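Table 4 source record.
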Amino acid sequence: MKRLFVLFAFLLLSCAFHAQDVKAQTEGTLLIAPRVDVEPFYSFDDHSWSTSLGSTSFYTFFDGSLGEHLSFSFGNHWLAFSDFSFDDTRALYQNSWRTAVTNWVDWANVTVNFSGFFLTLGKDYMRIGTHEIEEYDYMSHWQINSAFWNNYQVYQWGGRVGWMSEEEDTMVSLAVTTDMMMGKPFRGPQIDDYAFTLSGMHDFENVVLLASVSHCNIGWLGAAGLKINFNDALSMTLDGYGSGEYAGGALQMTAGLGEKFDLLAKVGYDHGNSHVMDFWGSRFYSGAGCYWYPLRDNRDLRVHGLASYDSYDHTFGMSFGLTYSLNLNLF
């Protein structure tokens, strides 16, 4: 199956390149995203404080198009630090080509599209239909994300075919990818080693609805996400997951205070009995935080403060840090 996939990808890309109009526009953008965190937390079991560097990391995102019908996207996780050692960063590279864990390539894919229909090949994230999956990792907070976000590896190799409306407000796709427990890409001899995901999205202007049905290592998984923008300053997000091994849901509210501040609050609940996710029992989590954007003309620099509680680990945590998004137009 691996040889067939590689041959098909080569033939497809060769045809796409030859079909390009030499006068077609070529574009390329690079997003450079460093993040620094300090995360003190208190354990109610040990009655003690500890501190980590949490989500301290360095990412880049390279996106572009080569003509009207061909585009590409690369997301790389170059550095990671939960403490002052290089253990987390070293693991990113030691885990190259592993399907069960994060490594230095989050995604690397090309997309061919004609008249709204598209085909994407390479590594991408599984289109699980929740808004927390859609958010960039470097902008997210693991403390107030679901057990699925924290424990299931959604970055996988494979292909996706689908259709998007001209207004880009409706999308339907079907993906066939490697799955978390395969080990290395395309080494799985059985059909159950692969994941199949049917997903959809519709933007009702002020309401964004996501939904998906997957067959993966935790069985049949249904997921849905609803985001309501009440106005320019206030929004609500509701996400839910359900399978035979795991179920969870979360509610998040976000409010803007002018151009310089945002407030957020989130509550969620998980319940699972999953050896794949290494998650057993129930979990309640909650958190509230504030974002400050100190730059005068943009929101490229974000300073955050967050407080959270997690019943699974019996911890109270805080997170203080900053994230910078540097956008470059390369060509």
